[in-house]
Design a protein that fits this description.
The protein is of the alpha/beta class. It has a single domain (34-204, 232-257), classed as NAD(P)-binding Rossmann-like Domain (Rossmann fold). The chain is built from 9 helices and 7 strands. It has a 7-stranded parallel beta sheet with strand order 3-2-1-4-5-6-7, sandwiched between helices. The longest helix is centred in the last third of the chain and has 21 residues, at 169-189. The two termini are 21 Å apart. Bound molecules: NADPH dihydro-nicotinamide-adenine-dinucleotide phosphate (NDP). NADPH dihydro-nicotinamide-adenine-dinucleotide phosphate is lined by residues 38-39, 41-45, 63-65, 77-80, 106-109, 129, 156, 158, 201, 203-204, 206-209.
Amino acid sequence: MDATVRLPPGSPIASPRQTVSTSGDASVSDSPRSVLVTGGNRGIGLAIARALSEAGDRVIVASRSGEAPEGLEAVQCDVADTASVDAAFTAAEELVGGPIEIVVANAGVTRDTLLLRMSDEDFDAVVNTNLAGAFRCARRASKGMIRMKRGRIILISSVVGLLGSAGQTNYAASKSGLVGLARSITRELGGRNITANVVAPGFIDTDMTRELTDDQRAAYVKQIPAGRLAEPEEVAAAVRFLASPEASYISGAVIPVDGGLGMGH
Ligand code: NDP
């Protein structure tokens, strides 16, 4: 594995005399910044969209239906399709009148079944949405970010990507892949004032976890040190921090929001 780290000339580490200023952070502009959240029409994505909107940002929700939640603007986007992602970014850029500065790749699906029963289609569909979908968004967003010389890429993974989960080989593989994606983007674009981070939620009360039976839910809660599921807003708070000027020097990080479930992974 090639893990070459190139320090740019004049980087704080290469030159100890250089001071690092946290004021006037160039990796994110003053509000309102332009934000695109995939799958921002419900669940965790909607909570993220609302949190950033409340923070003063211009938030565009990218949803499959193209319908906007109350108080937000939306563009139509299927992250499983490159042309749709490109068109969604173009439409969002037209709405905000410039490039997208913060992208949150949140859209995700599950198709759970045991390894022996998992079809190629089950595997491909989940990886194509959760991992390749995030890649398509990051690639398209990076064009404008490179031009602007700043940007934030935030990928919504899962504790399952770190712990693994029986019956979720497709989902866990897609979610752990996001870590390599964010860290590689950090190595490619970190010197251009672009950060890429991963948020790894545990069990959050949304449509996705409402599919669990009461027994499954109780078994999961038993394993969570916090002793409860989280609300989508608790994930949104971590995303809001990663998007803020205060997080300018955080990149390639995996931030757990899991009540301690994934500790040490
Ligand atoms: P939901 O099932 O409530 O929502 C999923 C969202 O993703 C919806 O907005 C959905 O849009 C969108 N989506 C799915 N496929 C596509 C696609 N091809 N193109 C565009 N949008 C799509 O899930 P959550 O809110 O719970 O999950 C959000 C993210 O957080 C996911 O990535 C999930 O894996 C992750 N996560 C969730 C956890 C949880 O406990 N809930 C735990 C850890 C991670 P539509 O309305 O059109 O279906």
